[in-house]
């Protein structure tokens, strides 16, 4: 123990010093470090878990010294992983998992460093956790033999220069802001005219980002086209203030420089131009589009003043996509110009109207339309002003001249005459879509196919902007998800930070290990994480329904409004895959249309349900103590560390265990999938003996007694068998 303590402490300190010198070649260090983590894993397993050592009076001092050395090594290992190069996404996911686990362990161990109050069981748990981290690091480092020329700070954020200063921020971790924290974090941010988000919100996790000199960072952005005059800005958070920083697009990422920040988000904006308007008059010509001219006559303003001009070029690809995917909501504005913002001092009086000359992009002649001016006020509201007197410029064909006596955001377009008289609100709503104030979205509900093959009902709900719906569905299908038939919601108008709450009804209940924060989505248009993934537990419904219901509510200032509900026949969708034939004429859940659910089928258990198949029933009846239900109960009684150790004892390949852990699922699901990976499709009595032997190897005598008793009684494991374990997650599918 003393030797391992000295080795880990010295190697950790030396490695930390070398890693902070970015110019040094650290590739020769990888092989000895690889072997060190392997040796530490074996050392913890065969030496540190010795019963006599743990129960001795000197255990606290010995383990405290060993923990100090391991902490130093782990701090260096976390930085080392940021320097390593991985070629495939699976290895990158494993690296992220190990980094997160190391950061969590270092944080927990630093808080509870006083080991003198630890019991023998707590010391054993800590050693098992250290052993698993060492083994995870061993398998992760072994997948690389090269280093990066930058530091990966997490979730695609890279620190690239200056190289001599990267060591000072190598300990920093960036994470995409959790959905539940978005609204609170962004409450103080102010967007300029026409600015919109083009990245997710990135949050500094743990230690603050702080450097003596500015560090060049690159962050991923939302893949959308930018108009020619758009500029990229980065808003960084320092305390309660958000500060604008210049940014550039390089190789599909936003590059910017910063020395201190707690969070940041990338926005696209438009450059303002300032001109002085005197009583003699002035003609402004836009630097971004020379066809846009504004003529201020003599004595237009009551006094000389500085006027700000900002041209907002609308994203034409967005307009065409919306007209194609949402024809009912986007049919009243046939064509529209860009938006010019004109701002002046509040105390200036306008004596004479100005003459505005603007082009309408993709102008068309249609007798059913009328020229209108969209005026966007400072409070964000939009006014619709008919301008039939606007004169067309004959030389250009698509430019118009009109007078205006109130300045703010101005755009010229052609709108349907009938709607101008009957429903102006629909035209204004369509303008807000093009201006990117609002977004038309769809809530989709999917099931995880790989989990269904193990009998776990796991839902994936996502709020998707409607113009990206087909692309997202194709991507989710590649990830093993498929859409529940008839579950797609009608169109939902969303703004950034609008909240949709998810509620379960019918015979589906929430997993108790997941907090209530997990069941809502705070929408952000530029994020790729507007989804929630959650398993469910079947329950006895008070109304006797055999159908699960997912309700979607939009949160408002007063009473939440139900915007959609999905009905799922969990009996039929419980198992899926080629090994279990489930195809028949009625293998569909009840349809959900326009917020109404048809209960004509599925209110009674189907005689041809998947639960009645021989292949499914065999999962529960062949060896009851190893059934699907029993393993789920056992998974809830194990911690993730002991489930990992148990999987190793059961000869589950550690690569497979690491793959399962890298999926970042709730612990009970991760534990279950490790056990199910060992069990396979067919269980036997010999496997019960193997499980008992493995539990004996990891010192879990209490679990051995429970399993042997249930096996002798030829019954399933029950939650009551582990009732004195408060962290036991009640999550099981009752057999038919």
Provide structural commentary:
Residues 579-604 are annotated as: Disordered. It comes from Magallana gigas (Pacific oyster). This is Death domain-containing protein. Residues 574-612 and 724-736 have low confidence and may be disordered. This protein has 736 residues and is α+β, with helices and mostly antiparallel strands. The strands form six sheets. Strands 1, 2, 3, 4, 5, 6, 7, 8, 9 and 10 form a ten-stranded antiparallel β-sheet that branches. Strands 11, 14, 15, 16, 18, 19 and 22 form a seven-stranded antiparallel β-sheet that branches. Strands 23, 24, 25, 26, 28 and 30 form a six-stranded antiparallel β-sheet that branches. The radius of gyration is 31 Å and the shape is globular. It is 32% helix and 27% strand. The chain has 20 helices and 34 strands. The chain folds into five domains: 2-147, no CATH class; 152-270, Chondroitinase Ac, Chain A, domain 3 (Sandwich); 274-434, Chondroitinase Ac, Chain A, domain 3; 439-608, Sandwich (Immunoglobulin-like), CATH 2.60.40; 616-722. Helix 5 runs antiparallel to helix 6, helix 16 (640-649) runs parallel beside helix 18 (667-679) and helix 19 (685-697) runs antiparallel to helix 20 (701-712).
